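Shipment paperwork, digital attachment
Item: protein structure file
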Amino acid sequence: MSTRDRLLAVLVAVIWGVNFLAIDLGLHQFPPLFFAGLRFLVLAVPALLFIRRPDVPIGWLIGYGIGFGVLEFGFLFVAMHVGMPTGLASLVLQASAPFTVVLGAVFLRERLRLRQVVGIVAAVTGMAVIVWHRAQVAAVVPVLLTLAGALGWAIGNLCSRKAMSGAAPSVNAVHVTMWMSVVPVLPLFALSAAVEGPAAGWHSVLTATDSPTGWWGLAGLVYIALVSTVVATGAWTGLMRRNPAGVVAPFSMLVPVVGMALAAAVLGERPDAIEVLAGIAVIAGVLIGARPARPGCRTEPVDRVTDRVTVTR
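Attachment content:
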């Protein structure tokens, strides 16, 4: 991996870490489910108008949108709205990695290596400690909602793998992400109307320019939709094409480091020592599971993208 690519990988991780602060800004202006729908609408409109639908199976594309869009961001935004600390959210969401490994083994029949099992156990133990500690000192529901979002991300990962497994090399992964964004818009807006009220979301849009909070919320929306998704995801896709996935993927573990550092510096969040230690266990578990097999090790045959690490923000 070249020095340029290492610096680019760090930059992408920083962009994704800032993403959680941008979500916090947006939630001060928009209801959470509506904000999630708005986040995807910003990408869905140009996708429908200017990008031809990628030649991938429509069923898996819809599954990708439901898992990544409706479930991950729906649960995550609601969790942060009801009290999940911003920095801790960036950490707990990393549970998507062990969830992806387990779901891949169950549904895609991917072979689990010993180090993956060890990594899963370490990550799950760390998450269990965080849930237990939150139950002692604060509400545990926001943590559980964030874990549900991580499970949604894992489901989206598996669907995106299947969508891309038979795709031609010319299929642009960013275009797939853009078209995936079409799927969650209507379900999220429907959920928002049912749960948050049919007028609450649109009122928040119409009043967004009336206060500094609204302007910051709009800035957060633009950052999440354009900078975090289009720019950072495009750069990450290029990194994955030029370098082995096992070399690139660990850089994503910088995301919670950036997220927690920014939450402490900007929002004044101070995680307890036990949560920091549990977080280290989670990150260690993900890194252990992400290590590639040693040369010469026998593994089950997989298709050309089943063994790819999928990370999209």
